[in-house]
Amino acid sequence: MRDAVVQGDAARAREIAIALVASGADLVAAVEHGFAAGIRRVGELWEEGEYFLPELVQGAEAMKAAMAVVLPALAAGRAGSLTRGRVVLGTVQGDLHDIGKGLVGVLLAAHGFEVHDLGHDVPVERFLAKAREIDADIVAASALLTTTMPEQRRLAEAIAASDIARKPKLLVGGAPTSPRWAASFGAAHAENALRAVAAAEALLA
């Protein structure tokens, strides 16, 4: 699983995902230690200068191909069970980074959260509208550029000023962000996708 993503082989990743679902194995553990480990390695290779944009995109496509098979199986396995919480997820306006945020969504869904992924370049107003529509428990916003970090603060202020009766908790993340930054406007922080799951669970505990 890991190698298929690192090598950017979407067809192979999909084949392995189909076999995984058929095997009856623990899908959450497999995603965390297989496909998710692969996309994390792709990110590391990008940061180290070993991978460039084509390899980054190919790795992301392989991850998406696998998740297109795994996520419906996870949803079917949870049919009839209560969701752990509803999450609105997106990368803030002005920021086009999607891979890390997408991984957060995959792992939250794998851990029983109902995830509504708005994609990237999401304006504050769209976060709020979706949170109101689904009665969200958490709004999770990623910023990968220092220039887009202020959008996270704007989102916090908009949630606080909104007329939403049961205001969602705010969870932020992204490479330039920090716990101190998040705390400055009353948000929770996660430094990576696995920590995002733990942070979401803590917010709803």
Summarize the structure.
The chain is built from 9 helices and 5 strands; from the N terminus they run ααααβαβαβαβαβα. It has a 5-stranded parallel β-sheet with strand order 2-1-3-4-5, sandwiched between helices. Helix 5 links the parallel strand 1 and strand 2.
Order of strands, widest sheet: 2-1-3-4-5
Distance between the termini: 32 Å
* Strand residues, percent: 5-15%
Number of helices: 9
Residues in helices, as a percent range: 55-70%
- The structural class is alpha/beta
Which parts are unreliable, with pLDDT below 50 for 5 consecutive residues or more?
A: none
* Number of strand segments: 5
Biggest sheet architecture: 5 strands, parallel
Nearest-integer average pLDDT: 91
Dominant shape: globular
Order of helices and strands: HHHHEHEHEHEHEH
Write down the Rg.
17 Å
Written overview of the protein:
The protein is globular, with a radius of gyration of 17 Å. It is an alpha/beta fold and 205 residues long. It has 9 helices and 5 strands; from the N terminus they run ααααβαβαβαβαβα. A 5-stranded parallel beta sheet has the order 2-1-3-4-5, with helices on both faces. Helix 6 crosses helix 7.
Give the SSE layout.
Blueprint: H1 2-6, H2 10-23, H3 27-47, H4 53-77, E1 86-91, H5 99-110, E2 114-117, H6 124-134, E3 138-142, H7 149-161, E4 169-173, H8 179-183, E5 188-190, H9 193-204
Parallel strand pairs: 1-2, 1-3, 3-4, 4-5
Helix pairs in contact: 2-4, 3-4, 3-5, 4-5, 5-9, 6-7
